[in-house]
Amino acid sequence: MSELTEPRTTPAARPAGRARALPPVLVTRALAPGVLERLTPFCEVTLHGDDEPMPRAALLAAVRGTAAVITTLGDTVDAEFLDAAGSGLRIVANHAVGTHNVDAAACAERGVLVSNTPGVLTEATADLAWALLLAATRRLGEGERLLRSGRPWSWAPNMLLGLELGGTPLGILGMGRIGQAVARRARAFGMPVGYHNRTPLSEAARDGAEWLPLDDLLARSTVLVVTCPLTAATRHLLDAERLARLPQGAVVVSMTAGIVDELALADALDSGALFAAAVDNFEHEPAVPARLLAQERAVLVPHLGSATVRTRRAMGDLAVDNVLAVLAGDAPPTPVGPPARISPPPT
Fold it and tell me: How far apart are CA 219 and CA 112, in angstroms?
């Protein structure tokens, strides 16, 4: 298989000796090494072998006539996309847990299945949430910038004082797989854990964490970790008014773009209402608000939640599993959204 780095689509190598045409599959981004080799014996793969999203016009042209597409969060799958693909499209396999880039209802209307990659990135994302939490509370970014600046410095009793986590109340907004993994790690720090979901978890699933109404959770969370999915109902759920309900000197760690109003977060840091904040991904990626970039107490990383070798390989493998299942006439392992009909494979 040929995987080129130029920002254009390129047909991957096709096995010789096939009497029947292979179903065409578009992959919109270079994936982890070894993943696409699982597709090429069964599909005619066209790869956009670049780390940047496909330009919209190129995406609409490349999707025409495909049976399956492996997309990423940078690809908008809407009515225009589906019209461009045509009636042969059978599955959109999103290489992510989130699917806010996919109009699942429009897909279902056209009989197109949608899948995502849940579960396999839980531990890596929870690890990063804790890395960000520790970096924010112990002011590691500020310390590293000081050293790299070359400015003279010396140890002092009041230098870059941070916060300790032992016994500190932790709030988790969104107690799904990732939120539960964050909560498990909190036990090592002796942190009482509260959480908010639309509905409380079972006693076994919450594992000692306490469900609280959102406003009550905010009022008691010295540290707040945001892991809930982005939906129409959760967009900017943490606006200026709700951020103001956190205790003075709280720390916010955001693992989901769009839940926290980024400008309101900058305001809260400016005023000193928050001690620090950390953000893993942003509402208008790759753009980051200049006011956040200017914050010394903000730890900002470029969407690294699932960025480990093992996890990205697992995400790619799961996306491929979904494509191969649907092209074989089976249900995808991890479907999303309204049910769509499962079409039999062509004879």
Answer: 44
User: Within this chain, do residues 295 and 151 fall inside the same structural domain, yes or no?
Assistant: yes
CA-to-CA dists, residue 339 to 80, 126, 279, 308, angstroms: 20, 30, 34, 32
143 in the same domain as 69: no
Structural contact between residues 211 and 195, judged by C-beta atoms closer than 8 angstroms: yes
Closest CA to 194 of 213, 171, 167, 216: 171
Same domain, 67 and 163: no
CB 195 within 8 A of CB 217: yes
The model's pLDDT over 242-288, given as tens digits with 9 standing for 90+, comes to: 999 999 999 999 999 999 999 999 999 999 999 999 999 999 999 99
Number of compact structural domains in the chain: 2
Residue 336 forms part of a structural domain: no
Cα 80 to Cα 76: distance, rounded to the nearest angstrom: 9
Token digits for 152?
A: 């003279």
Going by their DSSP bridges, the two strands 223-226 and 298-300 should be labelled as unpaired
Does residue 191 lie within any of the structural domains? yes
Local structure of 213: helix, strand or coil: coil
Give the DSSP letter string of 295-347. Answer: -TTEEE-SS-TT-SHHHHHHHHHHHHHHHHHHHTTSPPSSB-SS----PPPP-
Ordered DSSP codes for 72-83 = -TTS-BSHHHHH
* 159 and 295 together in one domain: yes
pLDDT tens readout for residues 179-193: 999 999 999 999 999
Rounded CA separation 326/153 (Å): 61
Residue 176 lies in a domain: yes
**Considering the entire predicted model, what is its pTM?**
0.87
Residues in Cβ contact with 209 at an 8 Å cutoff, skipping those fewer than 6 apart: 172, 175, 183, 193, 194, 195, 201
Q: Dig out the tokens for 334 from the structure.
A: 């991890």
Question: By the 8 A CB rule, do 277 and 265 touch?
Answer: yes
- Structural domain span for residue 254: 122-300
Is 263 part of a structural domain of the chain?
Answer: yes
CATH of residue 141: 3.40.50.720
Same domain, 31 and 137: no
